[in-house]
Structures are given as C-alpha cells and as structure tokens.
Design a protein that fits this description.
Layout (H helix, E strand, L loop, with lengths): L1 H13 L6 E9 L2 E11 L7 E4 L6 H14 L4 E5 L15 H10 L10 E5 L6 E2 L4 H4 L1 H8 L3 H16 L7 H12 L3 H8 L4 H16 L27 E5 L7 H18 L11 E5 L3 H4 L4 H14 L4 E7 L7 H4 L4 E4 L7 H11 L10 H7 L4 E5 L11 E5 L11 H9 L2 H6 L8 H40 L1 H32 L4
Parallel strand pairs: 3-9, 3-10, 4-7, 4-8, 5-6, 5-7, 8-9
Antiparallel strand pairs: 1-2, 1-12, 10-11, 11-12
Helix pairs in contact: 5-6, 5-10, 6-9, 7-9, 7-18, 10-12, 14-15
C-alpha cells in the first residue's frame, strides 16, 4: 500500500504542468487503473520530438490518432503520414460503445465524439491535393539518394545541377533532368567539359537509366509544378482548431526510396522556410511519421548525419517530429537519443533474440523502482503503453504504465464517398492539382537544338547555292569560247548517245532488218 501511495505521489508531482497539455490516460499500478492519476503531455516540450512504438495490433495507430486530434483541439496543426490507409477516420466523430464507456470510466474522463478538419494530400495516384517539388528544389543530395548512386555518380549529379543553374536551365521535372544529361552526353559535351572537367559517359548513362527506373515507379507525378508551399501545412480552421493534413501513402510501402526521400525533402523545406521561434508555449506544427523504418532503411552514414542534424535543429522552428514504428531499434541511436517523449506499446518475445532486444530496449527508459521494465513491455494489453515525456523543465517524467484515452474521432476509415466530399471541397486540391507546364530545361535545350539545326541547314543551303552559282559561271565561260563551242557540240552528241544508246542500237538493228539501208 505504501508503494502504491508513493507511486501516486510521484505520478502526480511528475505530471503536474503549468501550461497547456494533452491527457493521454490514467496510470496502471499492480494491474489496477488508478482513476484520476492522469498522464499528460505538455505542449511546451512537443518540439523535442517523440516515439510511438509497439508490435502489430497493440494500438499504435489509435495513439497517433488521439494525440493528433488532441493537438488539433489545442489549435496545433498536424501532419500525419498515412502509410496503411487507416487514419482517414480522424475527420468524423466516433461512435460510443460499451468498450469506450468502460475504458473512459476507468480513466475518469468524460468522452464526447468529435471530428476534425482535415486535408488529404498525396504524392501518387491517391485522392487529394498534389504534393509536388521541382528537381531544382529537391537538390542534388536527395536526388542522388533517391537514385541510389555511388559517390562518383552523386558528385556528377551535383555538377549537373551547378551547370543547370549557371546556364539558366530550370530543372522542373524528371524530363528536364534527362534532357540536360542527354545534352551533356551528346551536343554539349565539349562545352561542359571545358567549364566543369571531364565527364564519364558511362556514369551519365547509369544516371539516365536510374531516372527511367524511377519514372516507372511513378516518381514523375511528384516532380513538377506547382510546388507545394509548406506554410499550407500550418493552418487552423475557421473555428481555431488545427487542420490535420493526412498524406496518403498506401502505395509507398513498395517504394521506400521515394518515400524516404520525399520525407527528407519535406523536412528540409520546412526547416528552410519556417522562421526561428525558439521555445514556444506550444508547437507551430507537429508531424507524425508512420512506418518510420522506411525512412532509415539502407541509409548511408552521410544521410543519417543529415537526418540527425534536421531533427536537432528543426525544434527551434517550433516543429515536433514523432516517429511511429514497430520496434525502437528501427530508429538509429543518434536520432533515438533526440526523442523526448516515448510511448511504448507491447512488444512480443517469440525468440531468444526478441527477449535480448527487449532487455536492450528497456534501458532506453528512466529507471523505476515500481516496474521491471522488460517484463512490463511484454505484459501490456491493447490500448496500454509505457510512457515517459519531458517535463516543462526538460526533465524526463517518471515511467508509467498507462491505460490510454479512446480517440474521439472515428476509429475506422472513411467511405470513398466521404473522401470524395473532403477532396472536392478542398481549396488546396483546387490550388495544387492544376498542372503548370512552363518553359524549362527540356524546352530550352530543344529550342536551342532546333535553332542550331536550322542555322546549319540554312548555312548548308547558302553554301550549296554559292557552289552551284560558281559552277554555272565557270561552265558559261567555257561554253562561250570558240573552242568550247566545238567541244560542246561533240560532248552533247556523245551524251545523247550515252543516254539513248540502247534505243539507238535497237533502232539501227530495226533499220537494217527492214531494208532501210
């Protein structure tokens, strides 16, 4: 009993905040839900990022949903990556049932269904406003990463981007990139090598083939105009609630390179665009990256350094990043160490390796005299999690097993008709689904090539005309001379014979046989 009272005291003190907060649930001690011992997440430290992890079916998606809608209710815009296609229901109010009533009764909080203002965004064929970026905006580093180029090929891509900038050749889409590479490989090679050094034709060929392969994965839908303005992600609706932007990525699981590169470009654009804010009372934007392992799979050391740098620096822009994945080991240690909030759902130990991994994972959490963390992580039920957050002073709060609040929005997907209604009424869809095809590298180089060929043809015609005129003048001079007249008549007879020789021979034979002679 004394341990229970001590635990309650620690929880109440550790999760007591002055500013705005989100209620995640009630703590669990000895298998009992302690009604009224609420576990909260302070908005002030949400720019210190976080992790939501757990095995399949343990409730990660619902945790992501309840935090997203709670943030929106506090006027914080949210971006969620919907890789599995099960987050669209956040738009509509949920439906009460016995399980929700029982859960909320244990926690001690009244539950009211409520929907949210959402936007559907896409980088593929999914319904929603198009997220596009030009090749120039994407940059050579991410472009090379997406093509899986080696160091030599990546350096060549960087030089190609520099050449395009210097030559005022806008790289808007993949067709522009291919045309510039073809220009360097063919008609512009000498000019390029004079200014930028020797270039390997084989490397250019490999890059071209990689781009064609990327086009077959549908990447040409992502590159182009109109470019998406990241400020449109940080909006509130007419009632002051944060807009939840759902990026539909259900067809990206088989395209991890495109998915991860898109995310990196989005994070880099947000960092470059948003002003410095320092520590705010609440974040300007919170982003949830589901299936986060797709971002880090096969990432090079250089790329991991870039991700770590962005995660460290983007918090000063008032932006929080939350990674959702099955296992914390999916996240590199350098990034994992930057995540202030940890919501760990149940892990399953089916093998000796699983048990060993769980022991290592348990060491990521604050020491607790009330839990054996490795045992706790395997005993949590659905909708329960081990949670620690950063307090307003920046210290980790006590670890607590928590029965989580049920989302107020629908815990199911929208119907196709409901999705159509949201997409068709969206101002962002009207703004970004308009295709713009302005003059770019492709048109400029084709125009230059056409002008060059036209000039060559005109020059050839002029030279041919001069040659014919000179030949004509020479022949006239020769033919006007006395000697030439006689020679000309002889030549004319011989030419006539030559042209009509067979007919002449035949005519002669006919004359002889008919007695003409």
């Amino acid at each position: 009993m004394a341990d229970k009272e001590k635990f309650i005291q620690e929880i109440n003190e550790g999760y007591k905040f002055k500013g705005e907060f989100i209620t995640l649930g009630a703590s669990i001690f000895g298998g009992e839900v302690l009604t009224g011992t609420l576990i909260k997440l302070p908005l002030k430290t949400m720019n210190r990022h976080g992790l939501i992890a757990g095995a399949t079916g343990t409730g990660k998606t619902k945790t992501l949903q309840l935090i997203s809608e709670a943030l929106a209710a506090k006027s914080v815009p949210v971006v969620v990556m919907d890789v599995k296609g099960d987050l669209s229901g956040v738009a509509k109010p949920g439906m009460a049932n016995d399980k929700i009533t029982e859960r909320m009764g244990k926690i001690g909080i009244e539950w009211k269904p409520e929907g949210n203002t959402i936007e559907f965004l896409t980088i593929s064929n999914e319904k929603g406003a198009r997220l596009r970026a030009t090749s120039s905006e994407f940059g050579p580093v991410l472009f090379s990463r997406m093509l899986e180029l080696n160091e030599t090929q990546s350096s060549l891509v960087s030089v190609v981007f520099k050449y395009s900038d210097d030559s005022q050749l806008p790289l808007l889409d993949l067709a522009d990139m291919k045309r510039v590479l073809q220009h360097i490989q063919e008609e512009g090679k000498a000019e390029f090598e004079t200014a930028y050094g020797k270039v390997s034709s084989s490397s250019l060929g490999i890059i071209l083939r990689k781009i064609v392969e990327l086009e077959q994965q549908g990447a040409n839908q992502f590159f182009g105009e109109r470019s998406f303005e990241v400020e449109d992600l940080a909006r509130c609706d007419q009632n002051g609630k944060g807009v939840i932007s759902v990026i539909r990525l259900t067809d990206m699981q088989t395209k991890p390179k495109l998915f991860s590169t898109f995310l990196l470009s989005l994070l880099a654009e947000i960092y470059n665009t948003f002003p410095e804010e320092g520590d705010l009372d609440q974040p300007k934007l919170v982003m949830f990256i589901d299936e986060a392992h797709l971002l880090f799979n096969e990432a090079s050391d250089t790329l991991l350094d870039q991700i770590e740098t962005i995660i460290k620096l983007i918090r000063s822009k008032g932006v929080g990043i939350f990674f959702c994945t099955q296992n914390p080991t999916d996240i590199p240690n350098a990034v994992l160490s930057q995540l202030g909030m940890k919501v760990q759902h149940a892990l399953r130990a089916f093998t000796a390796k699983d048990r060993k991994d769980i022991k290592l994972i348990s060491e990521n959490y604050p020491l607790s005299e009330h839990y054996k963390v490795d045992e706790l992580l395997t005993s949590l039920g659905i909708g329960e999690a081990a949670i620690t957050v950063l307090s307003e002073k920046g210290n980790p709060t006590p670890l607590a097993a928590v029965l989580l609040v049920a989302p107020r929005s629908r815990m199911d997907v929208l119907t196709p008709e409901e999705i159509d209604d949201i997409v068709n009424s969206s101002k962002l869809t009207a703004k970004y689904n308009e295709v713009i095809d302005r003059e770019s590298a492709l048109e400029i180089l084709n125009k230059k090539l056409a002008e060059h060929q036209e000039a060559q043809e005109k020059e050839a015609e002029e030279q041919d005309s001069k040659t014919k005129k000179a030949e004509k003048t020479t022949v006239e001079k020769v033919l006007t001379s006395t000697t030439a007249k006689q020679v000309g008549r002889t030549v004319a007879r011989e030419v006539t014979r030559g042209l009509l020789g067979m007919l002449g021979i035949g005519s002669t034979r006919r004359k002889k046989s008919t007695g003409w002679f």
